[in-house]
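Long-time lurker. I teach an intro course on protein structure, and each term I like to show students one example going from raw sequence to a predicted 3D structure in token notation. This year I'd like something fresh instead of my usual example. Would anyone be willing to generate the tokens for the chain below so I can use it in lecture? Attribution to the forum is fine with me.
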Amino acid sequence: MDPTSTGGGRVPARMATVDGETTPGRGPAPSAPPVVRPLRYVAALDGLRCCAAVAIILGHAGSLYPASPRLIAQGGLLVVTFLLTFFVTSGFLIYRPLVAQQMRPRSARKAAAAGEGGKYFAWIFSLRRFMRIFPLYWAVLAVKCVVVGPGEVHTIVDWFQVIFLIPVPDPSVLVNGGLGFATWTLAIELPFYVVMPLFASWTRRLGRGWLRQYSGFQVQVLCIGGIMGLYTASALAARAPEVLTLLALPIGMLLATFEVEQWQRRKRFAPIAWLADKWWLCLGIFLAFWQIGAYLAYKPGTETSVEEVARSGLLLNALLLLFGTIALFVTICFGRPSLLSAILGSLPLRMVASLTYGTYLWHPVVLHELADRYGEGLWVLMGGTLVISFALALVTSLLVEAPIAVLRYKLDEKVGRTPRAGEAWAPLWLRPRRTGGVALLGADLGGARSGSTRSSAAPGPSRPPRPGP
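-- Reply from a regular --
Happy to contribute to a lecture. Here you go:
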């Protein structure tokens, strides 16, 4: 018998289930698990990642060129803004399957877990992240060490740090050795890949215990908001406002929670919908906050450097850039189809987006080689770094990522996991085709998938009407 039942197949009004879900009133227990909607594919996020990668690479190349102080201020803040976009996207995409699994009622969780690997869900999640990051990183690192040299890597401990992206005991090893400054973002994200499954499991336990009077969605919002509040207070107390930019990761987790709740309930949050549907306003906020931050960082009559830009008005800049990033992200993931989402979700950008990780890994090696050989020519550094890094990423996608993608799909088939359409890290030509039940962006939210002319699946007879006009 269900431990929450009181006999006769009925659940008392407002009684919390073991998963923290509450029922609005008395009624007969459902005879079948609730319908669980698969996570949708947000095509425009691929284009956003592509634009962010290009901006970061061009910004790194431009930092070696003795540009004007105003240009350094604007370019440096733009690079930081798109770097925050990467962090928000990572928090969103990584935490979304975890929070979707934890927020489902227990009666629906087993059916949903069957498509995610069943009891192997946590292991599949960890293995997929490992296969996403390390094989390509090791390939690029090996080529760099053979052709250029490992950099300032001397001891066995240094090699261990560089190979496995461990920031301790000496964080400078990751910057001065291996692939250089490209690895520090990976070293920051890796602990989150370990913590996120544990955090999702912890919130589920809280939903069963102390917070059982709240729904699964409310538990997630309370826990993520609490962690963000504690982190902010600690950063301010330690007088280290520069670490506030790392709030981008939990912000992505919070946005993932809202998106999953909205998608499963087929009901949009009115405040988010009001902003998200005005894509031109969100894009304007993004551009305005970037320019305001650059204005605050720029000091006329001084020798502005990238380091000075990073220190100038740091707390205010961090908040402005975070808000601008959130506004752009909200319209892409929560808004109705628009010109912006159509451009970002277009096929050329999605094809390039599958190579952004390899391009990001290759670009510091290419950049420093070009700087050593051809000096500080701006167009040589920017154009050459982008083109050569993209070409090398294409080669390694065929030699490294493609075989790993094949192994991953075989693993999914063995454990019974259903691949989702548009899984972004695989080369585009090896991604699984759309299968029955795979949802597309915009279905039940007022249109077809964002950035695509393909229509969503035909509604069934019991499907509720779409909200909005």
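Some talking points for your students: The CA atoms of residues 445 and 467 lie 6 Å apart. The chain has a mean pLDDT of 74.
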